[in-house]
Amino acid sequence: MNKVIFAALLGVSFSVTAYAQQTGTPPTTAKPTAAQAKKYDFKKMDEDGDGKISIAEAKKYGITVTLFQKLDTDNSGFLTQRELEVE
After folding, report:
1. pTM of the model
2. What are residue 59's DSSP bridge partners?
3. What is the DSSP letter of 87?
4. What one-character-per-residue DSSP string does 28-75 give?
5. Domain spans, the chain
């Protein structure tokens, strides 16, 4: 009788361990923000061909004023190809 109980408990413990391993949450990985994941086509965005992206041009491609200011590292009021490559 003790062997039957022991075998049953042993089986249950293996089942619980296997279940816990299958349903555990996967390890989290840092996901890039939407802005970091998005790459911009500088030539396409530079609609007037002046070699820089104005805030109006940037807005057409979903760049918010806040992101524009963050990307405009030299505070020129325009984005250069180099500033977009950092993104």
Report:
1. 0.55
2. none
3. -
4. P-PPPPHHHH----HHHH-TT-SSSB-HHHHHTTT--HHHHHHH-TT-
5. 2-86
Tokens 């390890």, residue?
27
Domain 2-86 has CATH 1.10.3710.10: no
Rounded to 5°, the CA angle 55-61-63 comes to: 55
Give the tokens for residue 69.
């200011």
The DSSP 8-state label assigned to residue 21 in this structure reads: H
Q: What is the pLDDT of residues 1-30, one digit of tens each?
A: 666 554 554 454 555 455 555 555 555 554
Task: State which amino acid sits at residue 66.
Answer: T
Q: pLDDT digits over 32-61, tens only?
A: 454 444 678 899 999 999 999 999 999 999
